[in-house]
Amino acid sequence: MSEFRRSLPRASFDLAIVGGGVHGLFAALEAARRGWKVVLVERDDFGSGLSFNHQRTVHGGLRALQSGGIARTRQQVAERRAWAVMVPHLVRPLPFLLPTGGGVMRSRAVIGTALRLYEWLGAGKNQGLPPALQLPPARLVSRLEALARFPGLDDTGVTGAAVWYDYQLRHPDRFNWVLASAAIRAGASLLNYVEAIEPLRVGSRLAGLRVRDALSGIEGELHASRVLLCAGAGSASLFERWQLGAFPPLVRACNVLLNRPAHDTALAARGRSGRMLTATPWDGLWLVGTFQTDEPAAPAAAVPSRADVEAMLDDANSAFPSLKATLDDVRLVHAGLTPATWRRGRAELLPESSVRVHGGGLYSIVGVKFTTARLTALDALDRIGLGPQRHAPGTGRAPQPLPHGTADGAAERLAEACRSVGVSLDPDVHAHLLDWYGTEAADVVRFSAAAARLQRLSAGLPLLEGELIYAVEQARACRLADVVLRRTHLGTTGDPGHGALDRAADILATHLSWSAERRDEEVRLTRLRWAV
Ligand SMILES: Cc1cc2nc3c(=O)[nH]c(=O)nc-3n(C[C@H](O)[C@H](O)[C@H](O)COP(=O)(O)OP(=O)(O)OC[C@H]3O[C@@H](n4cnc5c(N)ncnc54)[C@H](O)[C@@H]3O)c2cc1C
Questions:
Q1: For the chain, which residues score pLDDT lower than 70?
Q2: Residue numbers of the domain that contains 232
Q3: Which of 15, 101, 459, 521 sits at 20 to 30 Å (Cα–Cα) from 190?
């Protein structure tokens, strides 16, 4: 923030990006890698919008194939592989199971043919990947194997199942920060808690953005010759205010995270609503979705009411009868407004992201999938005319590993850090640090030791107190929710209990000199994120 007030208003950028979700962050990273001066403003925290709320599946295009999109399927298979190259530490192969039987389109003959075509189109899906990330072929399994793979499956009319593999993003919130920090390392200026208010113009020429520091209320100007909107649902009001034409209708899409131990296969089934739902194991619990409204939703309806959540659970229980989920089982609801289109009299999620050119230096991304966000960002830069510069060769479209996206050598570096600060970590703390931070775990331990914060935050949790301060000092967290929901693992699956939130608030309040009122307000706002 202080950086913003001091130096940025005097700088001049080739590109200003509005929105720090996955699309904006990829655009910032790729523009900086191509050698352009880029600034990104995010009115909340990085990755706090839809990019916090998704179902964590890196799709390989099977859905696209269903609607006959051969080219799109090929593209998504290739892009799914890109994730295993960029962040091998943060993805894992996950089997999905779709029961066969109950109509021609769900017969073994039809689904078997589709799977063979899918395998043929995806022949290069594992090229150059380590064995642990190689995806087994999609195939049909017998009724017996389907029931063994998914105990509790409603077997009425089931003749067997299709099984295919996609990647799951294990820690999406860690990923968002890894992506943001890669953009910063590449030279991009990233500002959270800075809102874009309106375009600056000199005559008819775009000159940048008028912005407001969302924490202090201070307004300022950012000078840039081009602006790319990646503001997710926020783009709808910017389109209206900045007179950029019609934005697609928005529907509310949700997942519910249930306090139920999950086994390690995802199951797809149709709910009472007629929509296909998936029960996905995530962090040991069932994440069920994606539920969506049939009608466009107003911004005020972005967060579902208790009645809405009850209706979702009803739909989930009809699709997955063994769940028998009630409101008491809900740990967290992921919800957000997402662009849609009209099909057969009801709203359907837009199948593909797009880039729009508004003229006068203004561009926008209408993003609908985090899976393809990198490609969409590259397309946007090409449309804007920000290709690779001569002094930034080798920045083609091929995916590159992101810093700290790997765990290669992480255990050795962590052991060395522990030796150098003279600490021996408990096994659960050691495992947690490697799992969340990968190669950055060693830096976190050194930092925590220097800050005399190597103790656990709470007896029942593997998190170190130093991680909270590290999030503020090294990862641009400004608020309690940033630390608890996005920079650490503490609250990503709901309230961690053990008095951990209050303890975390006390530590941050001391470190950041918050008043008692500010501390309590930070706790209230964080709890709100877990409320149903
Ligand atoms: C329930 C659900 C499940 C999903 N599951 C999957 C899945 O499994 N796989 C998949 O690939 N995709 C999935 N998606 C889609 C995916 O989550 C989104 O397409 C993607 O995260 C959108 O990223 P974004 O950057 O466009 O938007 P966002 O992440 O919403 O980012 C936009 C950002 O812009 C900021 N902003 C808005 N206005 C302003 C302003 N004036 N100034 C500054 N900043 C501003 C917002 O604060 C926000 O952080 C799912 C979506 C939902 C809702």
A1: 1-9, 392-394
A2: 2-51+173-248+351-384
A3: 521
